[in-house]
Each structure stands twice: as structure tokens, then as C-alpha cells.
Specification:
Residues 1-47 form the LysM domain. The protein is an alpha+beta fold. It has one domain (2-46). It is built from 2 helices and 2 strands; from the N terminus they run E-H-H-E. The chain has helices at residues 11-19, 24-31; strands at residues 2-4, 44-46. The chain has a two-stranded antiparallel ribbon with strand order 1-2. It is globular, with a radius of gyration of 10 Å. The model has no long low-confidence stretch (mean pLDDT 95).
Length: 51
């Protein structure tokens, strides 16, 4: 699944949206080869969904 980062969004908020907890931050970071916590408005992230 893809997510386009909106204004004022960060990895924490995106993680809460899809995973309902902070554990998704590292999953999103690793899946998208991100270094650090910075994301920008308009950036498209791939969200790994759990089965």
C-alpha cells in the first residue's frame, strides 16, 4: 500500500494510522530505506501491511 505524506505528518502519525502503535515506525523506515525520522509533504511511502 502507498501513503502520500501530508502536511504536519511524521512517521509517528503514519505509524499510528496504519498500525495503531509506534512499532510501525521502524517497519516503514526499513521498508522505504529511510535514514532518520524525516519525511516531507508529498513524499510517497510504501506501507508494509501485516497479514
Amino acid at each position: 500500500m502507498q501513503h502520500t505524506v501530508g502536511p504536519e505528518e511524521n512517521l509517528y502519525r503514519i505509524s499510528m494510522k496504519y498500525y495503531k502503535n509506534r512499532s510501525g515506525e521502524e517497519k516503514i523506515r526499513a521498508y522505504n530505506h529511510l535514514k532518520g525520522n524525516s519525511v516531507y509533504s508529498g513524499q510517497v511511502l510504501n506501507i508494509p501491511l501485516e497479514n
